[in-house]
From TrEMBL:
Keywords: Carboxypeptidase, Hydrolase, Metal-binding, Protease, Zinc. Its cofactor is Zn(2+). It comes from the Bacteria. The active site is at E275 (proton donor/acceptor). Belongs to the peptidase M14 family. It holds the Pfam family AstE_AspA_cat. This is M14 family metallocarboxypeptidase. CDD domains: M14_REP34-like. Residues 30-307 form the Peptidase M14 domain.
Amino acid sequence: MSVGNFYPIGTPGTPWGTAEKALWRSRQLVRRRYADDVLPVIERLRAHFDVIQYGELDYSPDGRYPLFSLRSRDWRDDLPVALVTGGVHGYETSGVFGALRFAERDAADYAGRLNLLIAPCISPWAYERIHRWNPEAVDPNRSFRTPSPAGESAALMQLMEPLQGRFLLHVDLHETTDSDETEFRPALAARDGKPFEPGTIPDGFYLCADSEAPEPAFQQAVIEAVAKVTHIALPDDKGEIIGSPVVAHGVIEYPCRDLGLCAGMTGARYRTTTEVYPDSPRATPEQCNEAQAVAVRAALDYALAHQR
């Protein structure tokens, strides 16, 4: 979709109201099914995890969406907790399937060493429509604050609340796509009544560290592991990735808690947000899914080796 400086909903310079949001929602068509793609994998994983339904989103008339997490069956209160989240932005496919791949293939290797909690598809309505927002035109990954404007974020925060203070690690799995620039950022500007300022999409994998607790050696350990699977994004001619200064190879920083980002939710000592680029001519969907799973493994290995 070519949008230039105009998005086809609303009046330039005027934030959306109820009518514009309803029009936007009416244009979001189902393109795949959460019940077909994600829930069968979660059901299969019941053999190895405790499957917990931690909420349900009622988005009538579109339907109701149960929210599930996977919890270590050998959970021990004396062990630290590691959280893996995917699908906060439903359109970021490898975040969902990278989390599920890790759960199926790799999670057993960490039994008895820490407690795993995996929430693989936090935004199922957006997963089905391959979109960034929920049906209220709210970005869940700017909504991890209290009170939260997004049901997706509120449900996950409620699940995490009893575990606060016990998190060693949190890896939040994301993608940066060409549609960020052609659809989602123009839609955001239109929704907020602001001008759209074009940017650039980095080609490759990178990490967003939390500027409150960057842990640079941890971030580099993840980058080094993923570089064996797919290429790492390079900075642009300003030394930036998506408008933020590159602080180390493949790493930028965000103030996650201030921005309401999922990665800032737990206060884990080791935390990061992955970003793969599925639209690259140098990467395949398989590589993207593998990069996410490898990133989780590398993060866990580092955190366990350096916990104190």
